[in-house]
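Input/output pair, single chain:
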Amino acid sequence: MISRPIIILSTGLALSQAAPPSVSGFSLTWSDDFIGTSNSLPNPSNWIVDTGTSYPGGPAQWGTWEVQTYTSRPQNLKLTGDGVLQITPLRDANNQWTSARIETQRSDFVAKAGGKMRISARIIMPDITGEAALGYWPAFWTLGDNYRGNYQNWPAVGEFDIMENVNGINRVWGVLHCGVNPGGPCKETDGLPGNIQCPGSPCQGNWHVYSIEVDRTATPEKVTWSVDGVNFHTVTQNDIGVATWAQAVQHGHFILLNLAIGGAFPNNNSDRQTPVAATVPGVPLYVDWVAVYNSV
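Output:
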């Protein structure tokens, strides 16, 4: 593990601690620990910065009824200079929201047949709760590689929601999306969810490590979600069927980090979350590192 200085915020919170740790039984496939000049964008060799309100030709409002526009402005997206990525949602005088979303250039992250893959990130959720947090929707997640350039084939492509949160609630949700929408084996549009209160300290304002492990070493294959090493959700091949599992899991994925405002999580499309007048803008999501591991 490569150490670097600990940066202390005015709150006394340790910000950037270390590069991604080693994990027993795994080798590091890919990572980013967001080293760079203050106010710069994340490394373009590793990341694509999504802007606007949809992919070209894709569903409006990113398919989830989010109200913000994503930008590449440093006010919304930047490196802190201390080895941390910062995403900040803002509201202007016309009540229009902006925020940021990035996705990995690579789309080939996969658990090989007979092996395991782990995807992890060390994250601070926005330090905001109650009415002030209504509409906040931070997420760390993946989409199947075959979504790129199509944008109409969700949820068949597969989606792993590794960390989702809404409205400043002290819980983390993990969700698998698959099959067809609506309905299907993943009960879309909700998907197959699990959730847990963050262990040790609240999710909001504190560092936690959010992970999934895709295990193809035995039958049935499975995906397990954890926070700080505490498992809280598992979906197996038997839960959704062999064909749907292959369609969703057994191919490459790319990774996304974003902070949406409003949208369809956690309720369905007819009862979605929206910001209110009391929602407070300007509370960031911080990411220390993101890492992909494969079993040796």
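The chain has a mean pLDDT of 93. DSSP finds two helices and 18 strands in the chain.
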